[in-house]
Amino acid sequence: MTAVVEQTQTNYHQQTTRYHYKVDTEVDDLTGEPSTQRQLELANEPGKKSEWKKIQQKTFTNWVNERLKVTKASSVFQVMSLKEDMADGVILAKLLEVLSKKKVKGVQKNPTLKAHCIDNLAVCLDFMRSEENIKLVSIHPEEIYKGNMTIIMGLIWTLIQRYQIKTSGVTITTRRVMMDWLVSMLPEWGITNMTTDFNDGRALLCLVDRIKPGIIPKNVDPTKRRQNCALAINQARTHLKIPALITHDDMSNPNVDDLSMMTYLSEYLQPSSLSLMKWVKKTLGPTRTVKNFTTDWNDGTKLAALLEAKFPSILPDANGMSPADARDNIEKCYEVMEQRLGILPNLEIADLMNPLVDEVPVMTLLTYIRYGQLSPLPDLVRMYGSIGDKPVSVGQTCEFTVDVTEAGPGKLYIDAYYITSGTAVKVARSKNGKYHHVAKFTPTEAGTINFDVLWSETPVPNSPFAVEVMDAHPVKLLGKEKLQGPLNVDQPIELMLDASAAPPAGAPKAYVQYGFGAPVEAAVVSLGDGKYGLRFVPPNEGVPKLHVTYGGKEMEHLKQDLKVVDYRRFSVIPIPEGKQFKTFERVEFGVRSDGPSLNNLNIMAICGDVQVPFNVESEEGHVGTVAFTPTVAGVYSIEVACGDRLVSGSPFVVDVIDPSQVYLENKIPKYLHIGVPFEFKLNAGNAGPGIPNVSVEDRALEDVFNCKYIEDEVRGTLSAIVLTPKEYGEFVLSLTWSGSHVTGSPFRVAVCDPSKCAISGDLAEKKAYLVGRPITFAISTRDAWINDNMKPVILARGPSAKLDAEIKQIEPYKFSATLIPYEVGNHTFSIQFGDRDVPKSPINVVVMKIGSGCSATGSGLRQAYTGIPATFQILAGNSGLVDTGIIKISVMGVVTKKECKVRVRDNQNGMYDVAYLTEVPGAYLIHITQNDTNIPGSPFKLNAREGPDPTKCVMDGPALQPNAILQIGKPIDFHVDTSKAGNGPLQVKAVGPKGIQARVYTSKSDKPGVNDIRVDPIRHGKYRVSTRFANKHIPKSPFMIKVFPGADPTKCKAYGPGLQDGLVGSPGIFIVETRDAGAGTLQVRLHGVKDAFKIDIKPRDPSDIRTLEANYHATKPGDYLITIKWSDVHIPGSPFRVRLTGDALDQDDNLLSRPTPKEILSTIEEHQENYDELEETGQAQKNKKQKKTQFSATLPRDAKINVQDIPAFDPLRATSPEDLFTEDSTRKSRTVSQRSNIKSSSSMNFNKSKTISEKNNMIYNTHRKQQQVEEKIEKKMKKSTSFTN
């Protein structure tokens, strides 16, 4: 019996006598199950690169020792180290003798010399090739002697394949053979690999139980990974005699390699083969003799006999098959296996016919048959009887038969109901023999009955069936399905009486009788042709009966019991507002009745195209509990109805989320870098209306990362989260969806700062080197990582090959690197830290060869620019040749005949660095002579181009705009056009408060010569941006920018009765506070009944423009959604659901006066920093007494308020010189000052040499003049569409 392994907590049955390993009782720390890709990543991580190799070496060593145990002197041949013990060839020879059962001749038992050892190894390898026909690739005795573990491990694996798994690996790979066998043994586990699928031990326990049932517990805790693995290994060792080649710690390690696991799992082949052979012989009986799993199955006759014996009648001609028709026999078997068992054979027909077929693939094929099951065949179900051939009558007992003789194993399912009314039809079932099912039913009313007939959950041919039911009486009542459910008080009911087939007898009569009370007459209207319309309205609750008379006679067959209730006596007990549920979480709410039974209610949950009906689960008094379990995320509308009327409180909305459906579409890199944004691409399309959140373990997110959420405008869902690191270190990021972790969360990330690394030494100073001589340089990683345990990585490549670098730590945060080039030509050195190039990397250098002559190389021999030194190198083999005049260098203009200044530096190693400066563009000749003879290539010809001219650079962009509002977290961009300035380096630097430097990113634009600059400040304040070209300032540089704090929607608050349910006609008022939310844009949107109302929003108090009051007057009832966003992100609680009840109002009575579109779209600039300073100094209260700027605007449905533009400070009333003469205030007030013939504030000069008294007098005089024009300025500002300070 196969063990059932469930994911439940179960106490282990302590079998202490069978344990060979000591297992800790605490929960394993290996809780994750990484994929194969993750294993490869871990294998490449520092410290874990060799982990899987160590496991493999231990496993292979154990395998070798297990094979050597059969020798008499097993202790002599005990292997402790494959690297050392295999070197002399003695143990390898003994291992081959044990495996092949042949003598290896020519081996020296006590080798003492290297030659003897290599001879022994050569004899062993020759034995494998010649005697055992084993193909060896790139395995040489010298490599084994040297201890090359890659070669040794490959040799051991070759022996394992040949002698244990017994496969050649030619037609089918060994890995495929083992995987097919495991899948056939464990079909219910869905095995996809031999590593992580076995980490928790459950699959191995099932494999043990499959071979020898009943020796493992039925219920196993999947979290006890190491205990499960230990239990399986020891049970296999005790009962199946399988050696423990691998430990439970290694098996439960996600980094275990597949070769180690294959080696261990292949030990199960032998006991599995014995068990399978026993089953085959028992199934075939004594008439068929089976001795092996190879040649006995070549002709297909035994395979056919096994199929017929296991599944009778599946191959009726199996006993008559001829061995001569091997291909035809196997083809028939394969066809039956595919069609009736659902088995796709793992062997090709030609491979099975081959006498040299491997044993394990044949075992796999037979194991599929052993544990296979016949597939149901619904297409072969036959039906006959009263099942749609002809109409039946009301009250007539009908029956039909379902014949499943040829349909295989399965289960019959019959469901019958009236199509029009949905009333179920009772079907009585019985069996007539083994394969015939008889179904009987009696129609109770006229109509069409739908029969769904399924065999093993699959419709049979022609299902569903429709059976027409006729009413034999000539007088029929049509529309009776309307009377099936509960009727509501005062609900008009309309029916039609068809008496066209009856003799004329006058107009019919109909009435509703409540007990002994007066009948309620139904209105009767003739429709012609003997048809009449009946209409009645139930006046009160009860269980009356409908009576119909025709021709003075009571139509007994038309009597109908009614059930009348009042839907107004039911109500819904709502779910708390804002509560969200997860998929497969029970959603529960209540319903209340003040009298009628709650069973009269029809309850439906609707989500898109999905409609889920459900009922009241339990009742306590007049209150019932309703619950359902959603399986799909989304917004569910819950409708509770009595008859066709919705009860009070219905419908209402339930949000269902599924965080497991949120996953990352891109891979998180191993390292993130400070100042470099990384975009987490999310797919949350099926996750429901959740709220995303990113947090950092033990830290505030805003202290470590700048975070930005990006929405998909088309789908209206979150599409990405952009994180820009601000601090280096190791962090644990949690990504939640409405408080629940998404797939893969939490994530571990490492943040470093490669820009802080610095290169010094040869590589940073010289560009030419000698072949064979070391290149040494140093790399400083201070402030780039939290400690000095992370080494830089050097990727060096020459003209045709890579170079290896030797890296050593010479002091904390400083490493030395040494490379030795062996090729002449260009070399590229890429120095990386955290998978990113450090400054100045990659570096291109030239490697030259020392010779008897002299050579020169370098860019200065090919090109030069006026005003910029050009350089090249000379390789002469000896130093001091320039000073002695042996080597002479001159640079002369071809036209001007003027020599340029030349400077030479002797590096004292046979190399010379040469620099020269050209002043005029044109052609030049460089003469380099040795002993008055030109060296190869001399004279060198070049054309000097015009050098850089910083005055021709053009700088513009959003950051330079006078009215630009710059915020942290938003791009601060500008452009520098150097297309007309010549060639030269562009340098941009931004220095802010307290000397803090902002990060500056430079990239090439699509336009030639245009550079895109982005400034990323860390904190708010004023920054001085310097832009230099060729080390000189360009026009407009330096310039000042002012950076405001970024928007923080979480600091916004919205509250008030206007965000709660109310009545039509009552004013809806709510407050929105944005005081601590930084600069941003407030957006208020309304969704609901069209043109029902609009929202008016304005500052609650002109002196506190960060607190806004919204007001609306609704004219129509309904459900509304009010969304409030700050800088395009929902504030806490948004969206708000509001239900307004009552009667609709005339809109003309509720209209408010509304401004023009220009007034609607007016925005007001706001300077948060000045406002905060003013409050701190106590000036805010003083300004309240001054004349106040009013702000009022009526906003439409989709209005936006730029609160980052709301005025928080008036410079005309300020008393601080810093407030009066900021650059922004000067720029804004200049126009008005010029019109009033008053000097602009930019003319005021506060020199450090002036005394305090003089400064105060100047401030006073200026302030008095400003007050004189205050009224005029106020008028101008009120007429403007925007107010500025």
Topology:
Blueprint: H1 36-43, H2 51-68, H3 82-85, H4 90-100, H5 114-130, H6 141-146, H7 149-165, H8 174-185, H9 202-211, H10 225-239, H11 248-251, H12 258-265, H13 269-284, H14 301-310, H15 326-340, H16 349-353, H17 359-370, E1 382-385, E2 392-393, E3 398-403, E4 412-418, E5 428-431, E6 436-441, E7 447-455, E8 458-459, E9 465-470, E10 476-478, E11 487-488, E12 493-498, E13 509-513, E14 520-521, E15 523-528, E16 531-536, E17 545-550, E18 553-554, E19 560-561, E20 564-565, E21 570-573, E22 580-582, E23 587-593, E24 601-607, E25 610-614, E26 616-620, E27 623-628, E28 634-642, E29 645-646, E30 652-657, E31 663-664, E32 671-673, E33 678-683, E34 692-696, H18 701-704, E35 705-712, E36 717-725, E37 729-737, E38 740-741, E39 747-752, E40 758-761, H19 762-765, E41 768-770, E42 775-780, E43 793-797, E44 802-803, E45 806-811, E46 814-819, E47 825-832, E48 843-848, E49 855-857, E50 863-865, E51 870-875, E52 887-893, E53 901-906, E54 911-917, E55 922-930, E56 933-934, E57 940-945, E58 954-956, E59 966-967, E60 972-977, E61 986-991, ...
Parallel strand pairs: 2-9, 11-20, 22-30, 32-39, 41-48, 50-57, 59-66, 68-75
Antiparallel strand pairs: 1-3, 3-6, 4-7, 5-6, 7-8, 7-9, 10-12, 12-16, 13-14, 13-17, 15-16, 17-18, 17-19, 21-23, 23-27, 24-25, 24-28, 26-27, 28-29, 28-30, 31-33, 33-36, 34-37, 35-36, 37-38, 37-39, 40-42, 42-46, 43-44, 43-47, 45-46, 47-48, 49-51, 51-54, 52-55, 53-54, 55-56, 55-57, 58-60, 60-63, ...
